[in-house]
Amino acid sequence: MQEELFGEATVSKKLLLEFFLTFSRFEYALKATGWYKRRPINPPDWPKAEPDWDRFAISLRDAFNSTLKDDLLRACAFFNDCPPNQQVLKNDGIAWETPVRPLSESELEFLLRMVRCVRNNLFHGGKYNKEVHESKDRTEALLRHSLTILSACLELAPKQAAAFREARI
Predict the structure, then answer these.
(1) Is the per-residue pLDDT at 153 higher than 60?
(2) Which tens digit of pLDDT belongs to each residue from 37-83?
(3) Which of 30, 130, 131, 136 qualifies as a cystine partner to 35, CB 3.0-4.6 A?
(4) 96 forms bridges with which residues in the sheet?
(5) What is the pLDDT of residues 13-29, one digit of tens each?
(6) CA 103 centroid distance within chain
(7) Residues 31, 35: Cα–Cα separation, whole Å
(8) DSSP state of 98
(9) Are the C-beta atoms of 51 and 36 separated by less than 8 Å?
(10) Please, are residues 25 and 167 in contact by the beta-carbon 8 Å criterion?
(11) Which of 156, 135, 57 is CA-nearest to residue 101?
(12) What pTM value is reported for the model?
């Protein structure tokens, strides 16, 4: 049964689970502490409850220092040097692009956008294509470095950290 669920996955299932649980608890913590996107209500459509990652990143941009810890420095360097590819539509088909950091985007805004890209690639099925699947080592590095960045953000955001710790499933 487990082989049917995971196919021929070579990436650590424990690491995948840790990443998914951490990411989802982080999103819960953002929304629980008021960091959600505010959009005008157009009845009968209710606005979606989406975490506002960008606004959160902007709030921490001055406090964030990628050089404070060695593991954080490595994680930031990894994402800056070789960010995860992103699935895009081109010529009526799916293609991969390397995201670019605009000059107007802070380091933390870019890093959290890349963490979301890692999540999207996994959750929306981009990692299952054998022709473009990155190596096990690179995928695990993306997961580990994402966890490091999320942890660093929680250290800078006590309200979100408290909500994150209180999250239950």
Answers:
(1) yes
(2) 877 666 666 677 899 999 999 999 999 999 999 999 999 999 999 99
(3) 30
(4) 87
(5) 999 999 999 999 999 99
(6) 20
(7) 5
(8) -
(9) yes
(10) yes
(11) 57
(12) 0.87
